[in-house]
């Protein structure tokens, strides 16, 4: 089988948290996260995605987080910068800046709130792909954006040289199968709990939230599935499932994972409004979930 476009991004990518302290980006903690991921063997780091609370960042903060991550990584892993917007002009500006800083790829979320037509989606991504010379990962997450990018539109986009990947977060295995069966794009899971099912039909990895907390087991799962060792991959899937499902189901991402990081002693700071902390009951459920996984250092917050 011919190699897919974007296959160099196969494996575990982690959508890292943006740490805040006194309502400012905490660069020291940001760099600590990067070092933690590199030490674990994470293939690619994704700053300023959904997990990075991108909607709450100012333009200057957005650019600074990407720049700091690129500088800290210093070529030891790939960096896929979250530079999407519901304004094509804004997405172009952010992406040009990230490319100039040295980003290896760009994660481009579907334009949100204004809900373009399928032709609007196509023209938006086409404008970005033809403007820059780094790979584009199309991020399909209708639960956040309000509208799904249809398979037909992704098929059209696959003919553009710059479109290399899809982060598939529709929650539909059929959607993943249709993309893989009709395009040469690399598909990356956008839902931790669906990583193994999606890899079983040809996806090549995940852009992970849970990987912030436990990158090692996520790497093992992806590597086992890629090697065709589905017995090992299934065991890891079931071990990780409570973190992927119970933990992340407690509240909107990144509230639970940010709370979990604090519980295990890798504090990533406060949330920024409109994100608010977990209540006491959910904190206890989270602590029990972390204990059950084996993170015995988890403490109440």
Q: What topology does this entry show?
A:
Layout: E1 11-15, E2 20-21, E3 24-25, H1 27-40, E4 44-46, H2 59-73, E5 78-82, H3 88-101, E6 105-109, H4 118-131, E7 136-140, H5 142-145, H6 151-157, E8 163-168, H7 173-182, E9 186-189, H8 195-200, E10 205-208, H9 215-226, H10 230-247, H11 255-263, H12 280-293
Parallel strand pairs: 1-4, 1-10, 4-5, 5-6, 6-7, 7-8, 8-9
Antiparallel strand pairs: 2-3
Helix pairs in contact: 1-2, 2-3, 3-4, 4-6, 9-10, 10-12, 11-12
State the gist of this model.
The protein has one domain: TIM Barrel. Helix content is 46%, strand content 14%.
Q: Which ranges are low-confidence, i.e. pLDDT below 50, for 5 or more consecutive residues? A: none
Give a quick account of the main beta sheet: strands, pairing sense, barrel closure.
8 strands, parallel
Helix vs. strand class: alpha/beta
CATH superfamily descriptor: Aldolase class I
**What is the molecular shape?**
globular
Order of helices and strands: EEEHEHEHEHEHHEHEHEHHHH
Q: Report the radius of gyration as a whole number of Å.
A: 18 Å
């Amino acid at each position: 089988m011919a190699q897919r476009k974007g296959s160099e991004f196969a494996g575990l990518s982690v959508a890292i948290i943006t740490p805040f302290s006194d309502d400012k980006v905490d660069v020291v903690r940001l760099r600590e996260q990067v070092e933690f991921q590199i030490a674990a063997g994470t293939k690619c780091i994704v700053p300023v995605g959904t997990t990075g609370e991108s909607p709450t960042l100012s333009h200057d903060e957005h650019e600074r987080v990407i720049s700091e991550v690129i500088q800290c990584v210093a070529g030891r892993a790939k960096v896929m910068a979250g530079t999407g917007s519901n304004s094509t002009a804004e997405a172009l500006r952010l992406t040009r800046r990230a490319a100039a800083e040295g980003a290896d790829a760009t994660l481009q979320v579907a334009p949100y709130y204004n809900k373009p037509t399928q032709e609007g989606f196509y023209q938006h991504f086409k404008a970005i792909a033809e403007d820059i010379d780094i790979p584009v990962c199309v991020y399909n997450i209708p639960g956040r954006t309000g509208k799904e990018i249809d398979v037909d539109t992704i098929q059209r986009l696959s003919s553009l040289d710059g479109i290399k990947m899809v982060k598939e977060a529709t929650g539909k295995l059929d959607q993943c199968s249709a993309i893989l069966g009709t395009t040469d794009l690399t598909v990356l899971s956008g839902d931790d709990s669906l990583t193994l099912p999606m890899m079983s039909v040809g996806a090549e990895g995940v852009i992970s939230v849970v990987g912030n907390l436990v990158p090692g087991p996520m790497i093992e799962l992806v590597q086992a599935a890629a090697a065709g060792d589905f017995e090992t991959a299934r065991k890891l899937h079931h071990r990780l499932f409570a973190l992927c499902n119970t933990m992340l189901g407690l509240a909107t991402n990144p509230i639970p994972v940010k709370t979990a990081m604090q519980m295990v002693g890798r504090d990533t700071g406060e949330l920024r409004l409109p994100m608010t902390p977990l209540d006491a009951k959910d904190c206890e459920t989270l602590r029990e979930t972390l204990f059950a996984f084996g993170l015995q250092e988890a403490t109440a917050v």
